[in-house]
Specification:
The structure is a single chain. The chain has 452 residues and is an alpha/beta fold. It has 2 domains: 222 residues, Aspartate Aminotransferase, domain 2 (3-Layer(aba) Sandwich), CATH 3.40.640; 141 residues, Aspartate Aminotransferase, domain 1 (Alpha-Beta Complex), CATH 3.90.1150. Helix 6 links the parallel strand 2 and strand 3. Helix 2 runs antiparallel to helix 4 and helix 4 runs parallel beside helix 11. The longest helix has 21 residues. One of its GO terms (molecular function) is pyridoxal phosphate binding. Its cofactor is pyridoxal 5'-phosphate.
Length: 452
């Protein structure tokens, strides 16, 4: 649609495609719209999800149907013209093509918008496609962004290498904790975006979202926040952020079997991204498969329960590991420099996140411990990603942050021996803790590598 038709109300539309013309949109259908309007999103993200309308299946099933069609029929030739002109759209159950809007994917977008408390959301094929699409929509050639120097390696590479080379978009990296430096880095009239992660990957710096939003908005800058590490724990849009992006592959999926992303923000932005002539989502085509969207719709309802257990175990393990003398990075610990900030912005009862860092100082020691934890005691798996029900471990400097050079890693605080642990909830807590203790004890054995 040339001008886009998605709006806040559309987050609650019925999604079965109508087969007639718009004249057949009668009073009964209009009443259905009204019956399924959601009330304003409550502050608690789980309550917001539950408050959004449940989409029933085509034949009354408790689960919504999968609309697997790539293209959609119309009953009258003029309807197609009106759809492409932007006169008819998904708000009236008119769909053109699934790269533009698909009913099943649209429903998951409605759930993501409820989760983050935004007007609208659009789900994509990956987290990186969500990040790239929204930044390219907000920044044109010659544009400038300010970003945290503590970012996921893939995002850092996008901002450092790809965007300057391919799009003439530059980024200034700053310590997101130093608000004066953030202010100084913003060039009024040129800087378009302030970008940071709620909890940075992998060193778990917590952003003061309300204060950073105030700084950016005072200078007319759009705030984009990656909330992949903290769904449910923090709600950036409710704290002032303009756009929230996710790698849905992580906690929201929870099964390490789906690659997906999401962009949550104003309806006006999502509309612009779906514009037929200028929209990054429409023209670059990072389309989510409707079968993936259906899978996600089945997992979002228990995200809150999963996050609480991830976070509970992470806090217990971090506390115990610290007592054993390990160098810990976890914002739930009172000696973490951002503990007070996180307490002030976190949603009640969801904890402090499910990721912790164990700094073994050298890569050799980190690799020894991870080898023991996986191959000898079955505490977890050596694998990248996070949010899985099993604990996942990786040495960040040589894996998920390997895109950064040595100077950039040092500035970001990434030690060569930093193990990023995504704490799972499989097995009992005491069973898993016993496995960790046994691995740590074996670290002291002579000729360890010969026995592993």
């Amino acid at each position: 649609m040339a001008d886009g038709t998605l709006n806040a109300g559309e987050l609650n539309i019925p999604t079965k495609k109508r087969s007639g013309s718009d004249d057949q949109y009668d009073g009964a259908a209009a009443k259905k719209h009204q019956l399924h309007k959601s009330s304003p999103h409550p502050e608690d993200p789980a309550a917001a999800l539950a408050n959004s309308r449940h989409e029933f299946g085509e034949h009354g099933g408790v689960n919504m149907s999968i609309e697997a069609s790539a293209t959609f029929t119309v009953m009258e030739p003029d309807t197609l013209r009106r759809m492409f002109a932007g006169e008819l759209g998904p708000d009236r159950d008119f769909f053109i093509y699934s790269r533009h809007f698909n009913p099943t994917v649209l429903n998951v977008g409605r759930l993501m918008a409820a989760l983050e408390g935004t007007e609208a959301a659009y789900c994509t094929a990956s987290g990186m496609s969500a990040i790239a699409s929204v930044l390219l929509q907000l920044c044109s050639s010659g544009g400038h962004m300010v970003a945290s120097r503590r970012l996921y390696g893939g995002t850092h590479a996008l901002l450092t290498h790809f965007l300057p080379r391919a799009c003439n978009i530059t980024t200034s990296f700053v310590d997101i904790r130093d608000h004066e430096k953030v202010k100084m880095a913003i060039v009024e009239g040129k800087t378009k975006v302030l970008y940071f992660e709620t909890m940075s990957n992998p060193v778990l710096t917590v952003a003061n979202v309300p204060e950073l939003c105030r700084i950016a908005h005072d200078k007319g800058v759009t705030v984009v926040v990656d909330n992949t590490f903290a769904p449910m724990v923090v709600s950036p849009a409710r704290l002032g952020a303009d756009v929230v992006v996710h790698s849905v592959s992580k906690y929201i999926s929870g099964g390490a079997d789906i690659i997906a992303g999401a962009i949550c923000g104003p309806a006006r932005l999502v509309n612009s991204m779906m514009d037929l002539h200028h929209g990054t989502l429409m023209l670059l085509g990072p389309t989510m498969n409707p079968k993936v969207a259906f899978e996600l719709s089945e997992r979002l309802p228990h995200l809150g329960l999963r996050m609480k257990e991830h976070c509970n175990r992470a806090l217990v393990f971090a506390t115990r590991m610290k007592k054993l003398g390990l160098k810990m990075i976890y914002p739930g610990l009172e000696d973490h420099p951002d503990h007070a900030v996180l307490k002030s912005i976190a949603n009640s009862d969801y904890g402090y996140g499910g990721i912790l860092g164990v700094d073994m100082e050298t890569e050799e020691k980190a690799n020894k411990l991870m080898t023991l934890l996986q191959n000898c005691t079955q505490f977890g798996f050596m694998a990248v990603s996070l949010g899985y029900y099993e604990t996942l471990m990786s040495c960040s400097g040589s894996s998920t942050s390997s895109e950064l050079n040595e100077e950039e890693k040092a500035l970001a605080g990434i030690s060569p021996g930093l193990i990023r642990m995504s704490i799972g909830y499989n097995g009992t807590m005491e069973q898993k803790w016993s496995q960790f203790e046994k691995a740590l004890a074996r670290m002291q054995e002579p000729n360890l590598l010969l026995k592993v």
